[in-house]
Amino acid sequence: MHPLPRNRRYFGRCGFCGDREYVLTEEPVKKLIDIALTPRTRFAKVICIAHNPQGFDTQFIFKHIVELYTDRPATPSVIMNGSKIILMEIMDVKFIDSLNYFHMPFNSLPNAYGLPELEKDVFPYLFNIPENQNYIGPVPSLESYAPDTMSINQMSKFLEWYNEQTLNNYIFTIQQLLSKRNCEVL
Asked: Cα(182)–Cα(38) distance, rounded to whole angstroms?
């Protein structure tokens, strides 16, 4: 075990386990699999953790491994719940869903564990399309945040936040939101 100080957020290079953060913008599924399946000499297993990927993200990873990742002979082992991939293992790499351990929405995790400074920003999922990957400018339209999917409490907080950002001419950078927030929380 290689302990890090509890109060230290570390995203650089570790001499023991290597790079701790990768920002994957082009061909993210292929690059994730390449990184995860790279042989390691200092430890035997790699665990990839995401929150609620079972019905969406993990499907892409599985498909890529089965159909396109033919240069390494390995068949993924999966545990499924209907069409959802709960757990997937290939070679010495395990893909797990933190939702199986934290039964709450991702944006509730920081407060549940006394880490309000890590509260996840609201994200404009409908704005996250290939042509907007390098967007820097005003906050995207209200509709981009899919407010109709929010609870009344979430909607109230969101509208307050959105109006404040708009009035203050906040400069929105999609890559900043995509990069560190999720990693810090998990």
From this structure: 23
Look up residue 161 and give its two tokens: 């936040």
Q: Determine the pLDDT at residue 122.
A: 76
- Cα separation, 102 vs 99, in Å, equals 5
The mean-pLDDT minimum among 2-6, 54-58, 134-138, 160-164 falls in 2-6
Q: How big is the chain, counted in residues? A: 186
The 3 state secondary structure assigned to the chain is CCCCCCCCCCCCEECCCEECCCCCCCCHHHHHHHHHCCCCCCCCCEEEEECCCCCCHHHHHHHHHHHHCCCCCCCCEEEEECCEEEEEEECCEEEEEHHHCCCCCHHHHHHHCCCHHHCCCCCCHHHCCHHHCCCEECCCCHHHHCHHHCCHHHHHHHHHHHHHHHHCCCCEEHHHHHHCHHHHHC
pLDDT in tens, 39-61: 877 778 888 888 788 877 888 88
Q: Nearest to residue 57, comparing CAs of 91, 96, 102?
A: 96
